[in-house]
Amino acid sequence: MKRLLYLLPLLVLASFTKLDTVKKSTNVRITPQSTLHIKGTSNVTDFTCLYNIKNLNEPIRIHYESGADVITFEKSVLVLENSGFDCGGKGINRDFHGLLKSDTYPEIKLSLKQVKLNPHKSNTADASIEIEIAGQKHLYHMETKYHQDNGWHISGLLKLNIKDFNLVAPKKMLGLIVVSEEIEINFKLVVKEA
User: How does residue 66 score in pLDDT terms, banded at 50, 70 and 90?
Assistant: First the structure.
């Protein structure tokens, strides 16, 4: 019995040490000053598909747990409607939507999983993001830059291979024009609490 009375205060104290990692939730908005585009190449020319940020006018609910240098996210998803991308022309837009299987999978989902501040580079962090395209999910790690000035300014460049999502690059003109399997997602987001 004496032993139990001795352990009980220690257990109570240990339970309170976790209070600084309580899960929190908030709503954020991506402002119209933001940009997001996908860049690709072919053996003939480069192409850029720009996302219409006005499609992101609804607040996004994020759930997170904050530690010393790491923020862990749960159910924090940015949904991009495929129809919001403009690649500069009807033909290339049609090819882009064909590649993404937009008829069956009309959205790209970006789920933020974790952000770890980089102690060796100021205003940089390593982010873990799960991307879902055409029903396939893949986890990526990337470096992001950030600063605060009338909202959070977050930028980054992610290179990925469309084969990760079981997608096949289109070929045109009997195979004379071949699109590269490597694409880049570039973003500069201005995020404010809603």
Answer: confident
In a domain, 14, yes or no: no
Q: By percentage, how much of the chain surpasses pLDDT 90?
A: 56
Closest to 95 measured CA to CA, from 44, 55, 53:
44
CATH of residue 24's domain is 2.40.128.110
Domain contains 1: no
Q: How many domains does the structure of the chain reveal?
A: 1
33: three-class secondary structure by DSSP:
coil
Q: Tell me the CA end-to-end span of the chain in Å, nearest whole number.
A: 53
Q: What angle do CA 173, 85, 175 make, to 5 degrees?
A: 10
User: What pLDDT is recorded for position 173?
Assistant: 52
Q: How does pLDDT run across 175-193, given as a tens digit for each residue?
A: 556 678 899 999 999 999 8
In a domain, 36, yes or no: yes
Residue type, 70: V
Note down the domain range covering 124: 20-193
**pLDDT per residue over 146-165, tens digit each?**
988 888 999 999 999 999 99
Q: Which of 102, 92, 83, 101 is nearest to 44 (CA)?
A: 92
- Kindly state whether residue 15 falls inside one of the protein's structural domains: no
Under 8 Å CB-to-CB from 133, ≥6 apart: which residues?
100, 105, 108, 165, 167
